UniProtKB/TrEMBL annotation:
Residues reported in the UniProt entry to bind Zn(2+): C3, H17, H175, C179
GO molecular function (one): metal ion binding
Protein name: DNA-3-methyladenine glycosylase
Alphabetical keyword list: Metal-binding, Zinc
InterPro entries: Adenine_glyco, DNA-3mA_glycosylase, DNA_glycosylase
Keyword Metal-binding listed: yes
Gene3D superfamilies, alphabetized: Hypothetical protein, domain 2 (1.10.340.30)
Highest taxon of the lineage: Bacteria
Biological source species: Ligilactobacillus aviarius
GO biological process, alphabetically ordered: base-excision repair
């Protein structure tokens, strides 16, 4: 049995749940990719993001931080013309802005991995929920992360978005007790 949100989804949602969601991630490029997907998800269904993920990976050069950080306005205008692209210029600019912030942090030898996992001292927070209704949309940890990310200069990093991000990258394990993928 899977978490209920994945049971009702298409195969891409099931695959995401089974192979990615809640699996501890430490690679900075992968962490940046997932942060960027969260940026695009704001106000949209996660299924749409998964359906368009291949397009996002292509236009953002597989979420290579220096490459994204160097993107220009001309590239943004080209990007919005790509078939199936989520053509929200504000979100596109936010991803590029966040890449620039992360690129500057990398120059100071600060990794996104350190920021994301530092609040828990590299420990997974395992909630062991019995039912989906118990899962909050944010918590103290996501509020702290959102504040820290904003202080560094990141955008689209509110507490609810950061809670979903912490679940996705495995800092928070919100697989239900009954889920065989926990």
């Amino acid at each position: 049995m899977r978490c209920s949100w994945a049971e009702n989804g298409k195969q891409s949602m099931i695959d995401f749940h089974d192979h990615e969601w809640g699996k501890p991630q430490h690679d900075d490029q992968r962490l940046f990719e997932l942060l960027s997907l969260m940026t695009f998800q704001a106000g949209l269904q996660w299924q749409l993001i998964l359906n368009r993920r291949h397009v996002l990976k292509r236009v953002f050069n597989d979420f290579d931080v220096p490459s994204v950080a160097a993107m220009t306005e001309r590239e943004i205008e080209e990007m919005v013309q790509v078939e199936q692209m989520i053509a929200n210029r504000r979100k596109i600019r936010a991803v590029i802005h966040n890449a620039r912030v992360l690129d500057q942090l990398h120059e100071k030898e600060i990794l996104l991995d350190q920021i994301v996992w530092g609040l828990t001292k590299n420990q997974v927070v395992d909630h062991r929920w019995q039912c989906a209704e118990q899962i909050p949309s944010q918590n103290l940890l996501s509020v702290q992360l959102a504040r820290q990310m904003k202080n560094y200069g990141f955008t689209f990093v509110g507490p609810k978005n950061m809670y979903a991000y912490l679940e996705t990258v495995g800092v928070i394990n919100d697989h239900l007790i009954s889920c065989e993928w926990r």
